[in-house]
């Protein structure tokens, strides 16, 4: 943004204009005509606008208002489309393509699967609509993320009914939707189905997804089968696949298999370890409390000239904090500052969580203030850690302070946050407050889970309130199904 009378650093200006004691040039910054003046004996340029300050400010305000107006119009249009999609009326068949597609993209991006399918149904009714495999691929990926494999299958069948020929990407998205949600048999059957089409055979990406599904479901016994099939089909392994294996074995604490996969990776032509490989090793050993091993592998990767990223330092902070090595944790933070790594919300959340669990409330609050001072907005994870820390330290008044802060913010709360609050007041025996916050949870359209019910059951059971437990079970059951 242009600021009138700002100073611009200029190098060797006097050499360029050695014959003149001062000079004036006309330039344009943005769309604002300006005069650049060099004063005698100065190596700086002073930029002065030919327009008045008020005129420039008005221009910038008009531009900002125009952008805001466009955003508001877009949001209003998307909401209008969503209302029409829910109306399920046959008359909305000539809607603006841009608005309908924006509404669909918006719901997919936010993983709002019900809204996305409604918007897709509305798109399907438009006279200008032409089926595209790319749209189905995006929807299938979203349904997999939202744990809706049944809906994914129905959408795929709808695609076949329309006479659309699935692509490799469509099939791979269906494999992911099945596999990541525990339906591995269906995932493998889908891969077999792909083999029956000459132009839709599974590729390296398909098998990478399949291996990732096996890893996520801890079905390591199936991995050799997949790798053997790849070799038979002549599909070469790549870095992404090895990283998937290394990460999966590491999270399952199968360290020997993890290191064997790393050795295979180094021996495979065209496969080179990267920062994801580094982070997987550090997380695996750090999470298991094997700090010496973690530090050894950090040094090994340094010798390979692999530069760490911000996630690397977050993993180190978490590992040292979990092991109670707070001096080393702070040393990592200092090292980040020296190397100009800017801490992210994840960095601060990790530090706050570790210090809170250690009962170091003063230090935790210091980092919380620093985080806000640096312009990072606390999120639900931040507040969850703070509530848990204050609860463990018996500082209930500070929990109230957190709740007031949240009331004055636009933070999006999730179920784990509410569970931490329920646990805090449950331990204090404040059943009335638990119930009030439960209704607040419903108003924010945040659904309780099994942990919520377990916390309430324990709190009510401790005070012999059996009837309330039964009532709550009905409430939670209704909320979860609504």
Percent strand equals under 5%
pLDDT averaged residue by residue: 82
| Poorly predicted ranges | 1-51, 68-73
Separation of termini? 48 Å
In quaternary terms, these chains amount to single chain
Radius of gyration, Cα only, in angstroms?
A: 29 Å
Write down the secondary-structure element order. Answer: EHEEEHHHHHHHHHHHHHHHHHHHHHHH
Tally of DSSP β-strands: 4
Overall 3D geometry?
globular
Number of helices: 24
Helical/strand content category: mainly alpha
Output the strand order for the largest sheet: 1-4-3-2
In percent, how helical is the residue content? 55-70%
The profile of the biggest β sheet is: 4 strands, antiparallel
Family: Belongs to the PPR family. P subfamily.
Protein name: Pentatricopeptide repeat-containing protein
GO molecular function, one term: mRNA binding
Keywords: Repeat
Describe the 3D structure.
The chain has 482 residues and is mainly α. Among the domains are: 7-51, no CATH class; 415-482, no CATH class. Helix content is 67%, strand content 5%. The chain is built from 24 helices and four strands. Helix 8 (184-195) packs antiparallel against helix 9.
Give a short synopsis of this structure.
PPR repeats lie at residues 132-166, 203-237, 238-273, 274-308, 309-343, 344-378, 414-448. This protein has 482 residues and is mainly α. It is built from 24 helices and 4 strands.
